[in-house]
Write a structure and sequence with these properties.
Helices cover 5% and strands 56% of the residues. With 457 residues, it is mainly beta. It folds into 2 domains: 30 residues, no CATH class; 324 residues, Neuraminidase. Strands 28, 29, 30, 31, 32 and 33 form a 6-stranded antiparallel beta sheet that branches. Strands 12-13-16-17-20 form a 5-stranded mixed beta sheet, with no helix packed on it. Strands 23, 24, 25, 26 and 27 form a 5-stranded antiparallel beta sheet that branches. β35 and β36 form a beta hairpin. It is globular and about 60 Å long. About 8% of the residues have low confidence.
Length: 457
């Protein structure tokens, strides 16, 4: 090589080529994932939460004459620390679990028939007059119930059976106030020392309730919307909630809002203050499609990230732009700024489950990678880009779970089929905790209830 060009070669290599390679490594990291730890428990685990010190809290339920919900606590090294029964009923489910800043455990869920629990040594018994009722309880770190609330949720005599919309979701603000949302088709009556709050569903279909309780379990406010709720989250002094609507109603009454006029079959995202007053709302739908929201989170730069599924042709941009996709119960993730500005949408092609079996969850690790889990039937392409990474359920009548990871550019990093998911959280070391049913041996059919999956470069 000519000395003149050789002298130029090395500066060019340093200035242009090496930075490009480094950027590529940062943008397209290669991750390896492996199961580090498994937990096997009776019943079904529904939720997992990671405490500030790294301990793992889960809820599980059993059915039948011994039906009950339980809380289990494990140390960061998988050592059992605590286990206690919360309440008993022939049919009972815990659907959400949160930890407050002083170590208390908040659980929400539903039950049918006769429910029993203990306050100290006193046995309390509640019998629901409707087909299904909601419960909300606070428990201290030793398993003692501090308070326990119940109210009506579903009555099939009123209208069609909308019991498939059974999740009751909760979130907490920095003062440990509790925000609760769910679906109902009944009359809800809640009281505190001075006021009575009452809402009644309309048109004999499933409506959405949204409420706030203080640290003592007293209700602060209660609202009802002509929609179905998916999830809610508190961030920097504001409440975000999202869901969907399968019908429309132009009538509006006090504290019982029509979110988006006479629009039909839409998904929505709203931002409200902590008193429940809506600041902005965005909705998206299509002339031939419907969509919903199932999970909300906040990314590292403060954008609101939501996941859900859709069918038909939907324009995901609620503003003047067009971001249109067509699918059959495919899954999607959308991003909005805190001011409600639409950023983008990513779509996964495949047979996502919906209705009673619908589930998906989204969380971020410290690197800004997005972990997305859910359940599906048939085939699903886990790579949302131009490449393909297909996984398949056993056949179209069976269902499976999946976990996939994308970076902050939307690039697919990793994905895998698992048996069935119910919840997902990120641990202190960026490990992933998954609850549900997970097959470890195809020959023996052995399964576990929770996995800890670690990521390494």
């Amino acid at each position: 090589m000519n000395k003149r060009y050789r002298r130029l070669y090395f500066p060019v290599l340093i200035i242009f080529i090496i930075p490009f390679l480094l950027q590529s490594c940062i943008r397209y990291p290669i991750f390896k994932f492996q199961v580090e730890r498994e937990i096997v428990l009776d019943g079904t685990i529904t939720d997992v939460e990671i405490a500030a010190e790294g301990n793992i809290f889960i809820t599980r339920y059993t059915d039948g004459t011994d039906g009950a919900i339980y809380v289990e606590e494990f140390g960061s090294s998988n050592d059992p620390l605590n286990s206690f029964k919360v309440a008993s009923a022939v049919r009972i489910r815990s659907t959400d679990l949160k930890l407050d800043t002083v170590g208390n455990i908040i659980i929400a869920g539903w039950f049918s028939g006769r429910l029993s629990y203990f306050i100290g040594e006193e046995l309390k018994v509640v019998t629901t007059p409707s087909d299904r009722s909601v419960f909300l309880t606070k428990i201290d770190s030793d398993g003692n119930i501090i308070w326990f609330k119940t109210w009506h949720q579903h009555n099939s005599v009123i209208g069609a059976d909308y019991s498939v919309y059974n999740d009751i979701n909760i979130c907490l603000d920095p003062d440990n106030n509790i925000y609760v949302c769910g679906n109902y088709n009944d009359t809800i009556i809640l009281e505190n020392e001075t006021d009575t709050f009452q809402v009644t569903s309309r048109d004999e279909i499933c409506n959405m309730f949204l409420a706030r309780f203080n640290v003592d379990g007293e209700i602060d406010w209660l609202q009802s919307y002509y929609a179905s709720i998916g999830d809610l989250i508190v961030h920097e002094g504001y409440l975000y909630f999202g869901g969907g609507n399968a019908g429309y109603n132009t009538e509006e009454t006090d504290r019982q809002h029509i979110l988006f006029g006479d629009r039909k079959n839409y998904a929505f995202l709203c931002k409200a203050d902590l008193d429940g007053q809506i600041i902005w709302g965005e909705a998206w739908s299509g002339a031939t499609g419907s969509a919903g929201v199932e999970s909300l989170t906040i990314n590292p730069v403060g954008d609101v990230i939501l996941s859900g599924n859709f069918s038909g042709t939907v324009d995901f941009d609620p503003d003047e732009g067009v971001t249109e996709h067509t699918g059959f119960w495919d899954s999607y993730i959308s991003r909005f700024t805190p001011d409600g500005e639409f950023r983008d949408t990513i779509v996964w092609d495949g047979g996502m489950l919906h209705g009673d079996y619908s589930y998906n969850s989204i969380v971020f690790d410290d690197r800004g990678n997005l972990f997305f889990s859910g359940n599906f039937t048939g085939d699903i392409d886990l790579d949302p880009g131009d490449d393909e990474y297909f996984i398949s359920a056993e056949d179209m009548t069976d269902s499976s779970g999946f976990l996939c990871v994308i970076d902050d550019y939307g690039n697919f990093l990793w994905g895998e089929k698992i048996i069935w998911c119910t919840d997902m959280e990120i641990g202190l070391d960026d490990s992933i905790y998954l609850t549900g049913f997970f097959n470890l041996d195809d020959e023996t059919g052995e399964y576990v209830s929770m996995l800890k999956i670690v990521q390494t470069k």
